[in-house]
Specification:
The protein is of the alpha+beta class. The chain folds into 4 domains: 82 residues, Alpha-Beta Plaits, CATH 3.30.70; 69 residues, membrane protein fhac (Ubiquitin-like (UB roll)); 128 residues, no CATH class; 63 residues, no CATH class. The chain is built from 8 helices and 20 strands. It has a 5-stranded antiparallel sheet with strand order 11-9-13-19-18, covered by helices on one side. The radius of gyration is 41 Å and the shape is elongated. The two termini are 56 Å apart. Keywords: Membrane, Transmembrane, Transmembrane helix. It holds the Pfam family YqfD. This is Sporulation protein YqfD. InterPro entries: YqfD.
Length: 390
C-alpha cells in the first residue's frame, strides 16, 4: 500500500470532482481507454470525487464535452507539482537550501567545550589546553574527532594528576568530566586488556563500560573467547577494557536425599534467665534453677545500659531456652526432589556469586535406592562470565 502511494506521488496525481448526469458513462468510457481512477466517492446528486494520474488529465478532457460533464480540480499532489512550484519560487527554494546547508555546517563543528569536576589543585585552563592539544576545541569538525575512549586515554596521558576523565559529545558541545587523584588512593589500571569468557554459555546481556563489544546477544561463547576487546575501532589504540557480560550457564548436580530423616521441632515450652554482664562476664540475677528440658536451643539478647550518650560497661542480657524434640520425617519422592533442588541451589551459590540469578531448574532423573533418592538436577544460571585477560 505504501509502495503504491509512493509511486503515485512520484508521477503526480490530482484530486477532483465531476458534476453531470452522465458520469457513470464517462468513467466507463475512460476506463476502456486505460485511464485509471481510484477512491471514487459520490458526494452529492450527480457529483463524484475521485483521484487520477496527472498524465491522464488531457485524455479525459476529450470525454468531458462528449458527456457534458464539468470538472473542478481540488488538490494537486506529487513531485511534478512540487517541482513546478519550486521553479516559480526560486528565491524561496534557494533560501531554504541555504538555511539547511548552513544548519548542517553549524552542527558539524564543536562550538563549546565544558569542564566539570571537583578541582582542587588543577586549573580548568590546563585541562582545556590539554584538550585542545588532542583536538577538543572550538571550531573542530565533530566528524574528525576519534572515539571518546581514545580521547579519554589521551587526556589522562596529558595530565598525570587526573584519576579519571570522561568525554561526552552532546550536539555541538563537548563535556569533559574529570576527577583528580587523591594521595594514597591508587588509580584504576590503564594497562591494556580484554574481557574474555570464563565459562561456556549463551550471552544474554553485554554492557561494555570501556572497549568494544565483540559478541551479540544469544551468541554461544566458550572459555577464553574475547567478549569486550581492549582494541578500539581505529585498530591501534588499546585500552583497559571493562564491562559486564551476563550469560546463561548450565550446571548438572548429582545429589542423594534421605527419604527418612529427623529434624528439630520446637514444642513451644521455654524458660528465661537474666544476667548482668560486666566487661563481658555474666552474673545471673533472675531465673535461677536448672533448665527443665533435656534438649533446648539457647538464644541471647543484650541491651546496653546508658544515660544520654554515655554507655556504661554493663549490659542486661536475657537468655531464652526453648525446648526442642527430634521429629522423624518421611519424605515422598516429590518432596525429596524439591529438597534436591534446594540443595543444588545452595551448593552452586558459593560457586557463582551473589549477583547470579537462577533462571531455570529441573530434575533430569531420580531413582530410589537403599532408602535414599538419587537425583540429577539441571540448573540454568544467569551470571557474569567476563574476566580480565592481559
Amino acid at each position: 500500500m505504501l509502495g503504491r502511494w509512493l509511486l503515485d506521488f512520484w508521477h503526480g496525481y490530482v484530486v477532483m470532482s465531476l458534476r453531470g448526469e452522465r458520469i457513470p458513462e464517462l468513467l466507463n468510457r475512460a476506463t476502456e481507454q486505460g485511464i485509471l481512477f481510484w477512491e471514487i466517492k459520490q458526494v452529492g446528486e450527480n457529483v463524484y470525487r475521485l483521484k487520477m494520474h496527472r498524465k491522464d488529465v488531457a485524455r479525459l478532457r476529450a470525454l468531458l464535452s462528449k458527456t457534458r460533464t464539468r470538472i473542478r480540480f481540488e488538490r494537486k499532489r506529487g513531485v511534478p507539482f512540487l517541482a513546478w512550484r519550486a521553479r516559480r519560487r526560486k528565491f524561496f527554494v534557494a533560501g531554504a537550501l541555504t538555511f539547511f546547508i548552513s544548519l548542517y555546517a553549524l552542527t558539524s563543528f564543536v562550538w563549546e567545550v565544558e569542564v566539570s569536576g571537583d578541582l582542587q589543585r588543577l586549573q580548568q585552563e590546563r585541562i582545556l589546553q590539554a584538550a585542545s592539544e588532542i583536538g577538543i576545541h572550538r571550531g573542530m569538525r565533530i566528524g574528525k574527532l576519534p572515539d571518546t575512549d581514545i580521547l579519554q586515554n589521551q587526556l589522562l596521558d596529558k595530565i598525570p594528576e587526573l584519576f579519571w576523565a570522561g568525554v561526552q559529545i552532546q550536539g555541538t558541545k563537548i563535556s569533559i568530566q574529570v576527577v583528580e587523584k587523591v594521595p594514597g588512593i591508587e588509580a584504576p589500571s590503564n594497562q591494556p586488556q580484554n574481557i574474555v569468557a570464563s565459562k561456556k554459555g549463551v550471552v544474554k546481556q553485554i554492557q561494555p563500560h570501556r572497549g568494544v563489544a565483540m559478541v551479540k546477544r544469544e551468541t554461544l561463547v566458550v572459555p577464553g573467547q574475547v567478549l569486550i576487546s581492549g582494541t578500539l575501532d581505529d585498530g591501534k589504540t588499546r585500552v583497559h577494557a571493562s564491562g559486564v557480560v551476563k550469560a546463561a550457564v548450565w550446571y548438572t548436580s548429582k545429589l542423594t536425599v534421605a527419604l527418612k530423616t529427623s529434624r528439630k521441632a520446637f514444642t513451644g515450652e521455654a524458660v528465661e534467665k537474666q544476667f548482668l554482664t560486666f566487661f563481658g562476664h555474666p552474673v545471673q540475677i533472675w531465673g535461677y534453677g536448672k533448665v527443665p528440658f533435656e534438649n533446648a536451643e539457647e538464644t541471647s539478647e543484650d541491651k546496653a545500659l546508658k544515660i544520654g550518650d554515655f554507655v556504661f560497661p554493663i549490659q542486661f542480657r536475657t537468655t531464652t531456652y526453648q525446648e526442642v524434640e527430634a521429629e522423624q520425617v518421611t519424605l515422598t519422592k516429590e518432596q525429596a526432589e524439591e529438597e534436591a533442588l534446594r540443595l543444588a541451589r545452595m551448593d552452586l551459590q558459593g560457586k557463582i556469586g551473589e549477583d547470579a540469578e537462577f533462571t531455570k531448574q529441573k530434575v533430569l532423573r531420580s531413582t530410589i535406592k537403599d532408602g535414599n533418592l538419587e537425583v540429577e538436577v539441571f540448573s540454568e544460571v544467569l551470571e557474569n562470565i567476563g574476566t580480565p585477560q592481559g
